[in-house]
Design brief:
Chain lengths: 490, 893
């Protein structure tokens, strides 16, 4: 269950090493056990320098990927997880968990409590999920509220102390590092009986509960006979419960209006104490039918002090909020483009913002644009080969808008123009970005009656909702487009 | 400070004059961390540990500096204090520093406790003879249990914060020395009911409980009241090391490996618990599980792994205790919790998960593997879990990834790959798609257009299109070839998939010859199902399209891999045309590589002409020499010899001189080659005679070998090193005599022998091969005692029987009998060791166990289905082995 070592490495392309070890921590008592358990197959944890080099090479983040290298590029060298074997000094260090997020590489080496030869399946190694959880925890800590480099540096400098609290001997005690930061501050509070470990202290003050539902909608639209358009809603419900008492019991319910779309694939926070089997089994894997459970979705729980994600869900709404088509015709150095967008009548026509980004890849710079829009305005970013159609806060009464125009390109000069591995030939897309406040696509809501608190005092309840777009693509219907298996099942 | 370090350098001068300043330490720690090995090899390395300890007591250094020193000692104790005596001294010094701290609050106490624990555990000093251990353990237990240790140990409020730390220290010590806290189980249980930190106590109790169960199972003992409260150990007082000493030789995995992976490792089933003990154990586990909700998710997961391991296979401990937790756990998004549920699934199977439960778990896992709200690394791990799902009734071979039976294509729909995925996700999902295609073929076409196979084809085409992009990153090409390899491996038997794949790859080569190294790599790794047709189309592709000049280099590299005896004239024609354009050294070498490949393939006539022409026409003298050499070889050597001369491929074609490289080729023929095993070895029937046990090895010959030398290595050095065995010649089909291998056990225990073979092939190459390890069973070590004089047998046996105690032990067990009864069992397996026989119901058996142990068995009053066995031995350690051995014999019949 334990980790032998942890690293944080910033990826710095263009520098001689392409990266710097920003933090590392070794656990010698775990290393000692690794030596016994792994026996003849034991490979020691390397020093930072060689580890950095081997990891960047394996992750293809060092600059020397020009030539074919068998140890990295061989067709049989297949990684299907974020767990790698690193070749260091002729020996193979395995398993190394590593992933990159926002330019930072998170890595650790879990202890395997048996011989490494033959390699046991990852599922049998408890340290794997513990290692992931540790790295996710560190990532969550570094990026919570952090805006710039100096804040990142401050957080990095707090890490040694925090890990001394949450992972003193390599076995993780709490993946929520913020929690430990609190418990350092709460140190003088005595623990009454049955105080959960994940709750560092107790709240004193006015009782209040806030629930915020954020839905993201993604879509792939093709406007083709043989390929179905797809769309999906992904929701997350975030709560903050400021309630007195060491373990207040709370039940939060989410409701749907009569024509709402059922929530599926619900994953809950571990503080939820029990789950209705209808919630557990409602899943997008099944073919949709009318008998689907449509709530109310009740979550009995004991809330932690901090803000937490009560649940995640997905949903299949009957229509996409904005339906569109995009057609691109190539005429010598010019592209003729036509875009049509229609807001569905059931969707709230009041955006915080709404725009369509139309990029052009693997071509020269935009030299000339002629266009006509029925609504909004078009901005041209020549160097980036990008058009942005700013639609604004509202669709017009007809709910339908269009754009047509011709775009002329200059000669293609390598390096500078944006490269894309998908948009080859006529393959092209536009991407919609929008946000609607106080609205969810599923209809899912929480209100004053959604919260039951079994503790003294009636809490003030505030609720928030918003819908945002995410990966909302409309593909050129005149050329091939990447499809998912789901879109082929007509 | 030693005299060789007396050079007047600034840092060193500081060392000699007393405590080092904050800046110097900061700089020194920085240098150390950059490369510990370089620092330790330098002048300051030797004394670093000593200075660190002494400066911790310096009054001039601030607390933060001291904390940074302690942080270093937490990470690098092995460098600072490399052996057990040094670690013991360091721990003592750290404890002294702790005691000497003034009674005001201090941030040093916690890291000092951690550092002393780390030094002892990592330095291997923890044990009954270590003074530091005898001080640290009661101190930790006192702090942990919240006893007031007096003002000298900081204010009461600080002692409370040290409580959790003390628990963690104890848990780490128990992890490194299983059984250490076995004597405190009762106390820990008592504390769990009281107020205080639930999490560290729960985890420690679960770990200590699990360790105690395993150790007692190994010793064939019960829990012996361990779960009932006892006395607190006091500082300086005796600590109960009994369990730890027994557990010492077997460091216990904290988490169970998958059941299949550690067959026979932990036989908890042998643990005999009294009803009273079983009840206590159940109560303890239930108590832990009930409070588990108060633990952080990662700690809950640890607890479940530990308890799952503790109860697995334990008689009378039904896993239903876990059931109330499962629904709550299945609903969460936590990776560790779902993983722990899978561990329980693997441990208990149908006993905990009905078929419906299994289906639900599989669905939750499937939706987690595709849930867009979870981070990608977690989703990929879930997908791995899905393909390694511990099914109640698995159908396929163990250890191979497969889609679980209940996971139909409907369930997988959201898990299939698309070009938009990142490479790792794409490959993982592609594997699943391939597995579905296998099933799809089994079900056979239903005329549906959009079969998974069709989708697979389109996906591969998309990958090839991306790989063909001019100036695209190499990762795109690599991904395309990895996908092709995966498909070829999973769907080797499906020409409907491989044929379009072959043609697609040929097209890709036409579009982008610079991918030649990837093609060569692919051909080297795939099986003949794809390899052979691909070779043919690629050769056609090369020889029929001479291509532009920049592609010539790649064409030649490609041809060196795919050229063989077929399509000779086209190949030679291409080479003749190419020769004129091979103006630089690199191209000429590439051209000669192709000639060499043809030479090896036995291409004759036309090649001779080409080589002669090259020997005249090439600009580079090295190239000309080479062409001439090949021509001479072709003209003078017969085909098989030619093969040997050119045998092992060139190690590094980029070497400065190709003649050097060629020499390497010849040299390689003279060196030892790694090869597959030419023979198969197995252990034959046991010969119970002579002064030492002797293994009879049966040999099955697969290939003809000469001057065979077999080398053996004993695992864990349980026996003295074994001499090599030599055999002059072995031929397949000819009978061979068994090889005799005498063993000299250092203790009577089974082991494994690693076997390596060194031999010469008929073509004269020297080869080296690793053979599968040989298992030496416990019974293979049995030897009889010298035959006593007639009539004195019974007295002889009784004398041996009595001599076992008090040093040794006595035990009784029930040995089930097969249909042929006791007589058959004895005559088949124990005949040589019988001292007194009264067939068919009673036998007295005396076995000598080298080096100097004995095992005595009384098999008396056999019944139809079994026989009670009384056994004595003068060696405790063999007891568990005897039980297994007897059961094994009775199963074998």
């Amino acid at each position: 269950m334990a980790q032998r070592a942890v690293w944080l490495i910033s990826h710095e392309p263009g520098t001689p090493l392409c990266g710097t070890v920003r933090f590392s921590r070794r656990y010698p008592t775990v290393e000692k056990r690794a030596k016994v358990f792994n026996g003849a197959s034991y490979v020691p944890v390397p020093e930072d320098g060689p580890f950095l080099k081997a990891l960047l090479f394996e992750l293809r983040l060092s600059d020397d990927d020009k030539d074919f290298s068998e140890s990295r590029d061989s067709c049989s060298h297949i990684n299907k997880t974020s767990i790698y074997a690193l070749l260091i000094g002729g020996e193979e260090l395995w398993p190394v968990i590593a992933f990159m997020k926002n330019g930072m590489i998170y890595a650790c080496v879990p202890l395997v409590e048996q011989t490494l030869f033959p390699r046991p399946p990852l599922i049998s190694i408890s340290g794997i999920s513990q290692g992931f959880e540790l790295l996710f925890g560190v990532q969550g800590f570094l990026y919570s509220g952090q805006k710039n480099d100096s804040e990142l540096n401050t957080k990095l400098s707090q890490l040694p102390d925090l890990l001394l609290q949450t992972c003193p001997f390599g076995t993780l005690l709490d993946a929520n590092l913020e929690n430990s930061l609190d418990s350092i501050n709460f140190a003088s509070v005595t623990h009454p009986q049955k105080q959960p470990t994940w709750k560092a202290g107790t709240y004193k003050g006015k009782p209040q509960v806030s629930i915020s539902i954020t839905e993201k909608v993604k879509s792939m639209q093709y406007d083709k006979q043989d390929i179905a358009d797809t769309w999906q809603v992904i929701g997350v419900v975030t709560c903050k419960c400021d309630l007195e008492g060491s373990m207040p019991n709370v039940t939060i319910s989410l409701s749907l209006p009569t024509n709402g779309s059922p929530l599926q694939d619900i994953l809950v926070h571990p503080c939820v104490t029990s789950l209705d089997s209808a919630i557990l089994t409602s899943s997008s894997i099944d073919a949709a039918d009318d008998s689907a459970f449509s709530g109310p979705y009740k979550f009995p729980l004991t809330p932690p002090l901090e803000s937490f994600n009560l649940c995640y869900y997905t949903s299949q709404v009957p229509v996409p909020p904005i339906l569109g088509f995009y057609q691109v015709k190539e005429e010598e150095v010019q592209l003729k483009i036509t875009v049509n967008l229609k807001l569905h009548e059931s969707v709230k026509n009041s955006f915080e913002f709404c725009e369509a980004r139309i990029p052009f890849y693997n071509r020269g710079p935009v030299t000339h644009v002629e266009h006509k829009v029925s609504f909004g305005q078009l901005e041209v970013f020549r160097e980036k080969s990008l058009l942005i159609w700013i639609i604004g806060q509202k669709f017009p009464k007809s709910l339908e808008i269009s754009l047509s125009g011709t775009v002329t390109f200059g000669a293609k000069s390598h390096e500078k123009q944006p490269f894309d591995q998908i948009c080859i030939g006529g393959t092209a897309y536009l991407k919609l970005h929008f946000r609607i406040l106080d609205y969810t696509l599923t209809g899912c809501y929480a209100d004053q009656h959604s919260v039951q608190v079994f503790a003294s005092g009636k809490p003030k309840i505030s609720t928030y909702r918003k819908l945002i777009s995410s990966d909302y693509y409309i593909w050129n219907s005149k050329a091939p487009a990447p499809v998912t298996y789901g879109s082929l099942l007509l | 400070m030693s005299s060789r370090h007396a050079a007047p350098r600034q840092g060193l001068a500081c060392l000699t004059m007393g405590p080092t300043s904050r800046e110097t330490w900061a700089q020194r720690l920085g240098t150390f961390r950059a490369s510990p090995s370089a620092f330790m090899a330098g002048p300051e390395g030797e004394d670093l540990g000593r200075h660190l300890l002494s400066d911790l007591r310096s009054e001039k250094l601030s607390e933060p500096t001291k904390i940074s020193l302690l942080a270093l000692s937490l990470e690098y104790p092995a460098q600072l204090w490399p052996d057990a005596p040094a670690a013991e001294a360091a721990a003592t010094s750290l404890l002294d520093t702790l005691v000497l701290l003034p009674p005001r609050p201090s941030a040093l106490r916690r890291p000092l406790l951690l550092a002393a624990t780390t030094a002892l555990a990592a330095g291997g000093a923890l044990g009954p003879t270590s003074g530091a251990s005898r001080r640290l353990l009661p101190l930790l237990l006192g702090l942990a249990s919240g006893r007031d240790l007096g003002r000298s140990f900081g204010p009461a409020s600080e002692q409370r914060t040290l409580q959790a730390t003390a628990w963690e220290c104890l848990r780490e010590l128990e992890s490194c020395k299983p059984g250490l806290l076995g004597g405190c189980l009762g106390l820990l249980r008592g504390l769990l009911g009281q107020e205080g930190a639930v999490q560290p106590l729960s985890l420690l109790l679960a770990l200590a409980l699990r360790n105690a169960l395993v150790i007692q199972a190994r010793a064939r003992a019960g829990l012996q009241g361990l779960l009932v409260a006892g006395d607190w150990p006091t500082e300086g007082g005796p600590w109960n090391w009994m369990l730890a000493e027994e557990g010492d030789a077997h460091l216990q995995p904290q988490a169970p490996s998958w059941p299949a992976a550690e067959e026979g490792e932990c036989r908890l089933a042998t643990l005999e618990l009294s009803p009273e003990e079983a009840r206590e154990l159940r109560a303890a586990v239930a108590q832990l599980l009930d409070a588990s909700y108060l633990l952080t998710p990662v700690a809950q997961a640890q607890l479940l792994w530990l308890l799952g391991w503790a109860l697995r296979g334990l008689r009378g401990q039904p896993p239903v205790l876990f059931k109330p937790q499962l629904v709550r756990l299945l609903g969460t998004a936590q990776l560790t919790l779902l993983h722990a549920v899978l561990a329980l699934k693997a441990a208990f199977g149908e006993a905990l998960f009905t078929a419906q439960d299994e289906a639900l778990l599989l669905r939750r896992l499937t939706l987690a593997a595709q849930h867009p709200a979870l981070p990608l690394p977690a989703r990929l791990f879930y997908l791995h879990c899905l393909l390694n799902f511990p099914e109640n009734w698995p159908l396929g071979p163990a250890g191979e990834e497969a889609a679980p039976l209940l996971l139909g294509s409907q369930l997988c729909r959201g898990l299939l790959p698309s070009l938009l995925h990142d490479p790792t996700a794409l490959l993982a999902r592609l594997h699943l798609l391939c597995l579905l295609c296998v099933e799809d073929e089994e079900k056979e076409e239903k005329g549906q257009d959009q079969s998974p196979r069709r989708y697979l084809e389109e996906l591969l085409a998309g990958l090839r299109q991306r790989a063909a992009l001019d100036g695209g990153p190499r990762a795109l090409a690599t991904l395309c070839f990895q996908a092709s390899y995966l498909v070829a491996r999973c769907l080797a038997g499906q020409p409907v998939v491989l044929t379009p794949l072959t043609h697609g790859l040929a097209q890709l080569y036409r579009a982008q010859p610079a991918l030649a190294p990837h093609f060569v790599d692919l051909l080297d790794r795939v099986g003949p199902e794809l390899g052979e047709p691909l070779k043919v189309v690629l050769r056609q592709e090369v020889v029929s399209r001479p291509g532009r000049d920049e592609a010539l280099r790649w064409h030649l590299q490609m041809l060196a891999r795919v050229a063989d005896g077929d399509a000779q004239s086209a190949t030679l024609g291409f080479l003749q045309a190419a020769a004129a354009r091979c103006t630089d050294w690199g191209l000429q070498q590439a051209l000669l590589q192709v000639c060499r490949a043809l030479l090896r393939a036995g291409v004759g006539g036309g090649l001779a002409d080409l080589l002669q022409a090259l020997a005249r026409q090439l600009e580079d003298p090295d190239g000309r020499d080479h062409a001439r050499l090949y021509y001479i070889l072709l003209a003078h050597l017969e085909e098989p010899k030619l093969g040997v001369a050119l045998g092992p491929s060139l190690a590094a074609p980029a070497l400065a001189s190709s003649l050097v490289a060629e020499n390497q080729g010849f040299a390689a023929a003279l060196m030892v080659q790694e090869a597959p095993a030419p023979i198969r070895l197995s252990v034959g029937p046991h010969r119970a005679k002579g002064p030492v046990p002797v293994l009879q090895l049966q040999v099955e010959v697969l290939e003809q070998v000469y001057s065979l030398e077999l080398r053996f290595r004993v695992e864990r050095q349980i026996y003295a090193p074994l001499g090599a065995v030599h055999v002059p010649c072995l031929c397949p089909g000819r009978p061979t005599r068994p090889l005799l291998l005498p063993l000299q056990p250092r203790r009577p225990a089974p082991s494994r022998l690693a076997v390596r073979a060194l031999y010469t092939t008929p073509s004269g190459l020297t080869c080296h091969a690793r053979l599968p390890p040989l298992l030496v069973n416990f019974a293979d070590l049995f030897l009889p005692f010298p035959q006593p004089p007639e009539g004195a047998e019974l007295g002889f046996f009784e004398e041996l029987w009595d001599s076992c105690l008090p040093k040794g032990t006595e035990s009784r067990l029930w040995c089930p009998l097969g249909p042929h009864g006791l007589e058959a069992l004895v005559s088949r397996h124990l005949e040589p060791f019988v001292v007194v026989a009264q067939p068919p119901t009673s036998y007295l058996i005396a076995i000598r166990l080298p080096p100097d142990s004995r095992l005595l068995l009384r098999l008396e009053a056999a019944q139809a289905d079994g026989v009670p066995v009384a056994l004595r031995t003068d060696d405790w350690a063999v007891l568990p082995l005897v039980g297994d051995c007897l059961r094994g014999l009775s199963v074998a019949g």
